[in-house]
Design a protein that fits this description.
The protein is an alpha+beta fold. The protein has helices spanning 3-23, 73-78; strands at residues 44-47, 56-61, 64-70, 111-115, 126-127, 133-134, 141-142, 163-167, 170-173. It has 2 helices and 9 strands, in the order αβββαββββββ.
């Protein structure tokens, strides 16, 4: 691992740790297990039939804001065009279940699930339509897969919690797929 990757990993772990402390979350992160430290536990089920296409819903889970976004086919298709301007387009240094390590960072391309906290200082980014998410505090930007843009202070992609599908339209947060 080169020196730049070590610095980025260190910043990501510190940012995620600060976010966990800020929100009172019980996420334990260490440098050696950062790849496996995405949030688990306390299952919460949600009926996705209530989530229209192109809309973002925020749930509270374990004291954290969790985003559920039903992406349109056009939004999913546009993700590939952004990879040159992203810090970690392949999500190699991201906190997420291994089944979500893909371009759309989800189990199913149309449904995006993420912890809605900026990886810089734990602020709450806002959805800016098909442009992705913008953190109002320090202008960190994320695409609709939660991948961070190179410009801005956020060091890492948004955190993806453990989740699975209990049925076609029923998602369960906190449990592995």
């Amino acid at each position: 691992m080169n020196q730049t990757s070590n610095k980025q990993r260190r910043r990501m772990v510190l940012a995620a740790g600060a976010t966990a402390l800020t929100c009172g979350a019980s996420v334990v992160l260490t440098r050696s297990c950062a790849q496996q430290a995405y949030p688990h536990g306390s299952p919460l089920a949600f009926d996705l039939g209530q989530l229209p296409s192109g809309k973002l819903l925020t749930l509270e889970w374990q004291g954290l804001p969790v985003w559920l976004l039903r992406r349109t086919a056009a939004e999913i298709g546009a993700l590939a065009a952004l990879e040159a301007v992203l810090t970690d387009p392949d999500s190699n240094d991201s906190l997420q279940p291994s089944a979500c390590r893909n371009r759309h960072r989800s189990l199913r391309p149309e449904i995006f699930v993420a912890i809605g906290l900026c990886t810089h200082q734990g602020c709450a980014p806002a959805l800016r339509g098909s442009d992705g998410f913008l953190c109002p505090c320090h202008a960190s930007r994320y695409d609709l897969a939660g991948r961070v843009f190179k410009v801005g202070p956020a060091p890492a992609n948004l955190v993806i919690p453990a989740y699975r599908y209990e049925a076609q339209e029923r998602l369960v947060l906190g449990e592995e797929a």
